[in-house]
Design goal:
This is TetR family transcriptional regulator. GO terms for molecular function: DNA-binding transcription factor activity; transcription cis-regulatory region binding. It holds the Pfam family TetR_N. By secondary structure, the protein is mainly α. It has two domains: 50 residues, Arc Repressor Mutant, subunit A (Orthogonal Bundle); 140 residues, Tetracycline Repressor, domain 2 (Orthogonal Bundle), CATH 1.10.357. Helices cover 71% and strands 0% of the residues. The chain has nine helices and no strands. It is elongated, with a radius of gyration of 19 Å.
């Protein structure tokens, strides 16, 4: 975790307890939003005392940062694993990327908007680091199939597609409750992959 002043525990039992707290914190955030998010609510959900949570976190802001950091770590892991297991070919790699992005965000559509609304400067930087990491992961995964990209500057085109997919995914996760597009996350991933592939295989 990269939340300020927070040190992850080393012992397995302590890590399990921490995970229980973070899972409970995300549940409270998803159900009640930032308005109902308190250390007391997380303590009640997790079955722990308020004091036990304060021994791990300085307050709810640090707890929120820890929740966000965990989600971002999972995003990076999911994307990396999906790209490693993708079938050869530009279309397969792009499809695996969009599906992994959709999968990572689809289960947290009530959590991400709340986290984005209260993020600190450090939290914003951590978010940008994660998005940069998944962008680089896609660019690296496409490299063996770069000959399929017919744009004049293929690497720049791949970076553009990566940023477009990522930006669309983040925006959708942040706004789909208030501005629905009528698509499932699977549909969004498929359509986004089709658009990116069409752009990459179209001449300038």
């Amino acid at each position: 975790m990269s939340a300020p002043h927070f040190r992850p525990p080393q012992q397995a039992r302590s890590r399990e307890t921490l995970q229980k707290v973070l899972t409970s914190a995300e549940h409270v955030l998803a159900v009640g939003g930032i308005e109902d998010f308190t250390v007391a609510a997380v303590a009640e959900r997790s079955g722990m005392s308020v004091g036990a949570i304060y021994r791990r976190f300085s307050g709810k802001e640090q707890l929120l940062e820890a929740v966000k950091d965990q989600l971002l770590e999972q995003l990076e892991t999911d994307v990396s694993q999906a790209l490693r297991s993708a079938e050869p070919g530009l279309g397969s790699v792009i499809g695996a990327f969009t599906a992994a992005m959709a999968g990572a965000f689809s289960g947290h559509t009530r959590t991400f908007p709340a986290l984005l609304s209260v993020q600190s400067v450090g939290g914003a930087e951590r978010g940008l680091q994660a998005l940069d990491a998944v962008q680089r992961a896609l660019v690296d995964a496409v490299e063996p199939h770069l000959a399929e990209v017919v744009r004049t500057e293929p690497r720049a085109a791949v970076r553009f597609s990566a940023r477009t997919i990522i930006g669309s995914c983040v925006h959708r996760a942040a706004s789909c409750d208030t501005w629905p597009d009528g698509l499932t996350w699977t549909d969004w991933a498929s359509r986004s992959a089709e658009m990116a592939l069409a752009d990459l295989t179209s001449r300038d």
